[in-house]
Amino acid sequence: AAVVVLVSGSGTNLQALIDACADPSYGAHVVAVGADRGGIEGLARAERAGIPTFTLSVKEFETREEWDAALAGAVAAYDPDIVVLAGFMKLVGSTFLAVFGGKVVNTHPALSPSFPGMHGPAEALAYGVKVTGATLFVVDPGVDTGPIVAQRAVEVVDGDTVETLHERIKVAERGMLVDSIGAMAREGFTVEGRRVRMGRLVD
Ligand code: GRF
């Protein structure tokens, strides 16, 4: 299965996928990496792996909708079976979802529906939860609200800072992402309401 990954930062989730794809039995390969900004480690990781990259900054476009359409076009050029938003810090819009809806998954560093948005680990720590984690979901028009593919639980440790907690979450998150993308690539998946079912549709 062809996978396009969109990143905005360090790309440790991307790196985990790149490493997993080296195993020919994994069933997926990262065909391109896109970003909303240049000069990030995520793009450097792709370049080191010889994977094509593209960068589309919102401020290069007159409107957000034009950026969204351009992003859809850039991703469509690689004809992906799955689009992975891994630390991508922009909300994809209606045009993008119209083109790829149902094939776009996003990983979030909290246990949905808790703590959606940009500060999941910080909000979990501030709330005082004893368990948090990571969620992989199929992107819908909401913010971190789509049907859940997988979740991994992570203990919050006394003395945790946002950074130590987020690093612990990211260990679980990349394992969840690698296992899930591999299964989705090998078995196929379909979204039925709020359920994501693994396995190809029987003709
Ligand atoms: C991940 O935890 C992701 O869920 C969150 O930010 C982090 C990005 O990490 N949005 P990386 O860029 O994959 O290292």
UniProtKB/TrEMBL annotation:
Positions that bind (6R)-10-formyltetrahydrofolate: 64, 89-92, 106
Q: So which residues are the signal peptide here?
A: none
Q: Where is the Formyl transferase N-terminal domain?
A: 3-180
Keywords per UniProt: Purine biosynthesis, Transferase
Which pathway is this protein assigned to?
Purine metabolism; IMP biosynthesis via de novo pathway; N(2)-formyl-N(1)-(5-phospho-D-ribosyl)glycinamide from N(1)-(5-phospho-D-ribosyl)glycinamide (10-formyl THF route): step 1/1
For this protein, what is the EC number?
2.1.2.2
Tell me the superkingdom of the source: Bacteria
Among HAMAP family, the record links this protein to:
PurN
- Tell me, in a sentence or two, what this protein's role is: Catalyzes the transfer of a formyl group from 10-formyltetrahydrofolate to 5-phospho-ribosyl-glycinamide (GAR), producing 5-phospho-ribosyl-N-formylglycinamide (FGAR) and tetrahydrofolate.
* Assigned protein family: Belongs to the GART family.
> PANTHER family under this entry?
PHOSPHORIBOSYLGLYCINAMIDE FORMYLTRANSFERASE
> Protein name, please?
Phosphoribosylglycinamide formyltransferase
